[in-house]
Specification:
544 residues, mainly alpha, Serine Threonine Protein Phosphatase 5, Tetratricopeptide repeat
């Protein structure tokens, strides 16, 4: 294969991922985004290396020092703007999809199965969490680090060079310090070496020994750091280690990886739909049936006729089984991103085999029909996942069902740790929803707080990126805050002046003049508002 043979696949996969991410670009912040997407002091970052990963001790105890490092790094790099952070999430997802394409290519040796594996992965229903919720950025980083570790380890096994092994080990360490889900990566690397490259067990074990030693050291440090910490978060309660319960939860994790179509389950649930999964709706049974039929038809029509296809299928199944181990310990359906790599590999190989069977079985009508049915099952499975993906993504929009539930929850739980403008944004979102019993009291004091927060936010955005000072999307939150402040208290001259300044930067001269005029009428001695009015009137005269 020539490098240019991959260009169409790469372009299509990148465009698909961007398309799936587009709605989230306007979503702003949700729930814990307020708490984590901010600036960090050096001492605050350093403390997470010797203490709990989360400064307010509100989340489940754990040891994740790179959690704060990546937030601090990216905040310094791109700032705290929601759109910029969503664009970063999109870029990370695109890179993860393309890395999966390369991994599937190394496994199968053909473009077609690699393309369909990478095509399926971002469409899996539960990946809407990673694409749409900014706080899940560490999951996107883990996807990239895991795939990079596999690719570097593959290079090491094939070339026997130390450089790729060192890079694979580094990716593993970064992954492990981000989140505990990386603990199963050495096992996945071992499965890759045995099934894909056919490495000798003794040589493979020698290469993986430092990985397991690092994992043991991490476990010791983690135990020492968190042993005296109270368990603040019980969503869900800790898993009892009774064998029957462990087996049940592991089965649920595997099933939820294979069938990711639950979407926003249980419309009456006002707690955390993040804990649902498995077979609970008709759509789940259809997806399970489509996947089962795809596997049976794909195997029956020779879709796994090549030895390399059988090895890739076995490795994909291993990733599903191994990646589900830690998910079972504390189940959440937004943590299926590693085990989902296995589902994508299985689907990609079977879809590629179906196309190969269609091409080869020219005179065999039965085989062609079976191969066509296998392809139809793959597309049905893909389509059902996309339905769940968009349902979940829609629920995460600023006025969506999950955002609506969690904004009130976040207001009660997180407001003490938020910056004033973040608290004001959250209050404003709650106030804008007449279907909720808003816990925010509508008083002139609230209007003053919203107005001040809107003015601060507007000024900060204008200083951070002067070229985008007139972009309505960039200033959306500030505009909402100032508009709400004026509605709550029509006599708020400061809010009207700040709203007029924002409208003026956006080129809405008539609206700006109206706000400046009203501010001057309310406070004749308001020199700043009078100067802004004179400037706006001068601009209008010049334009005329």
């Amino acid at each position: 294969m020539r490098p240019r043979d991959h260009i169409p696949s790469i372009i299509i996969l990148a465009l698909l991922t961007v398309f799936l991410s587009l709605p989230a670009l306007r979503y702003g912040y949700l729930l814990e985004d307020y708490k984590y997407l901010r600036s960090y002091s050096l001492s605050e970052v350093a403390r997470t290396f010797v203490s709990h990963w989360e400064p307010t001790l509100e989340e489940t105890k754990g040891y994740r020092p790179l959690h704060s490092v990546q937030y601090a790094f990216f905040h310094r790099l791109i700032g705290g703007g929601a759109v910029a952070n969503h664009l970063l999430a999109t870029a990370l997802m695109v890179s993860g999809v393309l890395l999966l394409y390369l991994l599937a290519l190394r496994c199968s040796g053909e473009i077609r199965p690699a393309f369909w594996a990478a095509f399926l992965y971002p469409c899996l229903g539960m990946n809407a969490w990673q694409i749409s919720w900014l706080v899940n950025r560490q999951h996107l980083l883990q996807i990239n680090f895991s795939l990079l570790a596999l690719l570097f380890f593959d290079r090491h096994l094939r070339s026997r060079k130390a450089g790729p092994w060192l890079l694979a080990f580094l990716c593993f360490l970064l992954n492990l310090l981000l989140k505990e889900e990386a603990a199963t990566l050495p096992l996945i690397l071992g499965a890759y070496g045995l099934l894909i490259t056919g490495s000798q067990f003794r040589r493979l074990l020698k290469g993986l020994l430092p990985f397991f030693l690092a994992l043991a050291a991490f476990t010791v440090v983690r135990t020492a750091v968190v042993k005296d910490l109270p368990a603040f978060n019980h969503h869900p309660p800790p898993l009892p280690l009774a064998p029957g319960i462990v087996i049940r939860e592991y089965g649920r994790a595997v099933l939820s990886t294979l069938v990711q179509t639950c979407g926003v389950h249980d419309p009456g649930n006002e707690d955390f739909p993040i804990y649902g999964g498995g077979l609970s709706r008709d759509r789940d049974y259809l997806a399970a049936g489509a996947l089962a039929a795809l596997i049976l038809l794909g195997l029956g029509t020779g879709g796994a006729g090549r030895a390399v296809d059988r090895k890739t299928l076995a490795f994909g199944a291993s990733v599903v089984l191994l990646g589900s181990l830690l998910v079972a310990v504390w189940y959440r359906n937004n943590r299926l991103y590693i085990s989902s790599i296995g589902v994508a590999l299985i689907g990609g190989v079977l879809m590629g085999g179906a196309f190969r069977s269609l091409e080869q079985a020219e005179g065999d009508l039965r085989r062609r029909m079976a191969a066509g049915a296998a392809a139809a099952c793959f597309l049905a499975y893909l389509g059902l996942n996309l339905l769940s993906f968009f349902e979940l993504q829609d629920a995460l929009r600023p006025d969506g069902r999950l955002a609506r539930i969690w904004d009130i929850w976040a207001y009660d739980e997180y407001a003490p740790w938020m910056k004033p403008e973040q608290t004001a944004i959250l209050r404003n979102r709650i106030l804008s929803r007449p279907d909720l019993a808003a816990p925010v009291e509508k008083t002139p004091r609230l209007a003053e707080e919203l107005g001040k927060a809107g003015a601060r936010l507007s000024g900060e955005l204008a200083r951070r990126d002067p070229a985008r000072a007139g972009d309505p999307v960039y200033n959306q939150e500030a505009l909402h805050l100032l508009s709400r402040a004026v509605i709550l208290d029509p006599r708020a001259a400061e809010a009207r002046n700040a709203l007029g300044a924002l409208l003026f930067r956006q080129g809405q001269l008539t609206g700006a003049i109206d706000q400046f005029t009203e501010a001057v009428r309310l406070r004749p001695d308001f020199a700043e508002a009078r100067a802004n009015l004179d400037r706006a009137l001068g601009t209008t005269n010049y334009a005329n």
